[in-house]
Known about the structure:
- The chain is of the alpha+beta class.
- The protein has 7 helices and 19 strands.
- The chain is globular, with a radius of gyration of 18 Å.
Amino acid sequence: MKIYKTNTEILLEFNRNIYASRHTLWDSFLNQDNLYKEVKAEIAGSIVLGTIDLLKECTLQAPIQSQEVWAAGVTYMRSRNARMEESKDTGGGSFYDMVYNAVRPELFFKATANRCVGPGEKVRIRKDSTWNVPEPELTLVINNKGKIIGYTAGNDMSSRSIEGENPLYLPQAKSYDGSAAIGPCIFISATPISPETKISMLIKRNGLSMYEDEVTINKMKRSHSELVEFLFRECSFPHGCLLMTGTCLVPGNDFTLQSGDEITIRIDHIGELQNTVE
Ligand code: DO4
Ligand code: MG
């Protein structure tokens, strides 16, 4: 089942049919005791509004309201290697190797709703950054009790020049207006998402493919529950939170995003998150 946040209501999808939720408040909807069971019951007791074609006429929003967005880093070998390369001249490289192998994961605060964009909206690159990439990441949706209740697609837009200059600049490389895209929906299921789930990313410039690759999430070094356990150790989230789980798809070192580039992130079960660079 999938959940969509639109500018007017909460929509539910099951078997390619769309239903309207009776809930209107996103925060309380998300933090119901058993979201999966509640959504299933809502669908069973509702009439079909239409097929998924109906979504084309809706304004989909980022599936977030009062939730904080956090992110995990260096959870894939590819990310460790890319970070070691970008910071080798400034001496920061060994930190990435250390965190990849450490018990404690790298977790950082990424954004609140006002710094996030939804499907079809524009992501941004910083004006003071010279090397910029999107990071396609499976994003966990976690309720206020620390339970993973669903999954969405995330783009952890990043400045490689700023992070590469000094790892202590990470918050500036990662958090700025328009630095996170999430959506198009929240996928919920009775069981955890399959380890065979594929994430792919396509970047197009003037209609031409500049980068295209895919990976399965079973390449990740850490488990989802391990990341959530660390995040909730000393932080409470009254409205729940979102956690980006790290990237494994990193374009070559000669690639930097430009204004107008179209980024399509596709994750099995969830769908496509498309954004253009402002
Ligand atoms: O260590 C810096 C950030 C890493 C990251 O965002 C990722 O691996 O996805
Ligand atoms: Mg990332």
